[in-house]
Write a structure and sequence with these properties.
Elements (H helix, E strand, L loop, with lengths): L1 E7 L8 H12 L5 E8 L17 E4 L4 E5 L5 H9 L4 H14 L10 H13 L3 E8 L3 H13 L2 E6 L7 H4 L4 H18 L4 E4 L2 H11 L3 E3 L21 E6 L8 H13 L8 E6 L5 H4 L13 E3 L5 H9 L3 E5 L9 H9 L3 E4 L5 H8 L3 E3 L3 H10 L8 H4 L4 H14 L1
Parallel strand pairs: 1-2, 1-5, 2-4, 5-6, 6-7, 7-8, 9-10, 9-12, 10-11, 12-13, 13-14
Antiparallel strand pairs: 3-4
Helix pairs in contact: 1-16, 2-3, 4-5, 9-14
């Protein structure tokens, strides 16, 4: 088997979308003639709290799938400050983090992730049989590590953009001086580093096209995907008298939830919906305090027909979605993307609502595979909630393409042909 070194910040036990992508490679690479060695941090918790804990000890775990090397805790000024003061005087911590982010690309001592680099460097010093390394970002300083390792050891390097870095849809909308400076700097350093990669991959065709224009080289697509279809018969509702619609995870600045909430207020005031017949859940939104502020204008319906939860363990979030009637994606006019939550929605085998349509990737996915419907206006939303007449008959042969195993085969084929 060829060895593949996976360099990842997020990895289980962290309960994050970013952790699932490299974990799927670790789990399935052995089925495609690759032996994975993962280098990550020694996470001590699942990431459901604001500050995650890294263990003081280095650990190595080997299974039938491959090996995981978990690096020990490192200290930088911002991490020391966070550990000591938690959320107090957070502007100081943010300032330190900003400075460290800039300097980390040039000086290892300022890099919060230097333990990962040192571990990878040490491994390659002792093992000359690694066929390729994959760095998955963010954090994108891992790309600098991949760049350094390729220069030093001549090993093939794949840069995996699970986020856009300079093209990140969230930072594009931030107009502050520091944000503009950071984006300008990311533009220059990102182009320089990534052009040296042996291969670049990302999560959907839209991002691939934008990256190709930015860095001037071919970008392959490896979707995030879902593990397997969930079994709905394990999760039975007591009653179907209430319509339940769920949204899972984060909201970006541009995602148009207000269109949906404005419609719910209208329906609530006109007595079309109430506490007994309707429920809209924002699963995990309480983990994002800034995003919670978007509900302030809607106090009239919050905790009546609109509910929020903290970040939940995966199985609890899945159970809530399996008990729902519809699962919703809110789109951003500044960006067309297949959000990672969409794949979990597919696995739940529930109708997916797109509010409003993006006219591109998400619309095409939903309509082509008969996964749900597009709601562009208040009238569309009202018609769905009042009439409840959506037809749902997904094309399973098509959606099976998006399983994590099938997506792992794609990146494995890329590695094996390098």
């Amino acid at each position: 088997m060829k060895k593949a070194l996976i360099i990842a910040h997020d990895f289980p036990p962290l309960n994050s979308i970013g952790a699932q992508r490299p974990y799927s490679w670790y789990k399935y690479f052995h089925e495609f003639n690759l032996y994975p060695i993962v280098i990550t941090k020694n996470w001590q918790n699942n990431g459901n709290t604001r500050f995650n804990t890294i263990g003081k000890e280095r650990k190595i775990e080997c299974t039938d799938f491959g090996c995981i090397i978990r690096t020990s805790k490192v200290r930088t000024p911002s991490l020391w400050f966070q550990e000591k003061f938690k959320t107090k005087i957070s502007f100081v911590r943010r300032g330190l983090s900003f400075i460290e982010k800039l300097l980390s690309f040039y000086f290892l001592r300022f890099d919060q992730h230097k333990g990962i680099y040192k571990e990878a460097y040490g491994y390659l010093n002792k093992n000359n049989d690694v066929h390729a390394i994959i760095t998955t970002g963010e954090p994108f300083v891992l790309f600098k590590h991949g760049y350094r390792i390729k220069k030093k050891f001549g090993v093939r390097w794949i840069a995996d953009y699970r986020d856009g870095w300079y093209l990140n849809h969230g930072t594009i909308l931030n107009k502050g001086i520091l944000s503009r400076f950071m984006r300008s700097w990311e533009y220059r350093i990102g182009k320089k580093i990534t052009r040296d990669a042996s291969m670049v991959v990302t999560v959907d065709p839209e991002m691939a096209s934008r990256l190709e224009k930015l860095i001037g080289k071919k970008v392959e697509v490896v979707y995030n995907g879902f593990w397997e279809y969930y079994q709905r018969d394990k999760y039975k509702r007591e009653s179907n008298d209430k319509m339940i619609i769920n949204h899972t995870g984060t909201l970006t600045i541009g995602q148009q939830i207000e269109l949906f909430l404005d419609t719910l207020i209208d329906l609530y005031r006109n007595k079309h919906i109430n506490e007994d017949n309707f429920e809209f859940n924002l699963i995990g939104l309480e983990y994002f305090p800034e995003q919670m502020k978007r509900l302030l204008p809607y106090k009239e319906i919050v905790d009546k027909i609109v509910f929020t939860t903290p970040r939940l363990p995966k199985n609890e979030a899945v159970e809530m979605n399996l008990n729902a009637d519809y699962l919703v994606n809110f789109t951003d006019p500044n960006l067309s993307a297949i959000y990672a939550k969409t794949y979990d929605y597919i696995a739940c085998k529930k109708p997916i609502l797109v509010v409003p349509g993006d006219g591109k990737l998400l619309d095409n996915l939903i309509t082509k595979n008969k996964l749900g419907t597009i709601l562009n206006t208040k009238e569309d939303i009202k018609a769905l909630i009042i009439n409840k007449n959506i037809k749902y008959s997904p094309i399973k042969d098509n959606t099976s393409f998006f399983t994590r195993k099938n997506q792992t085969k794609i990146i494995a084929d890329i590695i094996n042909t390098l």
